[in-house]
Specification:
There is one protein chain. The chain is mainly alpha-helical. 60% of the residues lie in helices and 0% in strands. The longest helix is centred in the last third of the chain and has 17 residues. It is flat, with a radius of gyration of 18 Å. The mean pLDDT is 92.
Length: 102
């Protein structure tokens, strides 16, 4: 659609993976609230690390993106919220995020 300017239906956008959900307008606010709550329940610093890497690697050649990805995972694993996430998964409980940047 971006390249051709030819509109497509919501169903076609869903089929192509351009959207993750389609719903009637009357349900939109509830669905957005669910998505917001899901995002808000995550560790802010860990999400930030992931987003920063994602956007940075878009400009990298494949090999550099893979190497930088390894470094990003290692940096992430050192973060206390990441460690809390792993531990809470093992202990089958909800994580208690610190939301600290370090």
């Amino acid at each position: 659609m971006v390249l051709t300017a030819i509109p497509i239906s919501a169903e076609e956008a869903f089929r192509l993976g351009l959207v993750v959900k389609i719903a009637p307008t009357v349900e939109l606010e509830n669905i957005l609230a669910e998505i917001y709550a899901h995002i808000k329940s995550k560790s802010r610093p860990v999400m930030k690390l992931g987003k920063e890497f994602f956007y940075a690697q878009l400009d990298y050649p494949y090999e550099k993106a893979m190497k930088q990805g390894e470094l990003a995972v290692l940096k992430n694993m050192q973060h206390q919220d990441c460690q809390e996430g792993v531990l809470s998964f093992i202990e089958k409980r909800n994580p208690k995020w610190s939301h600290n940047e370090s």
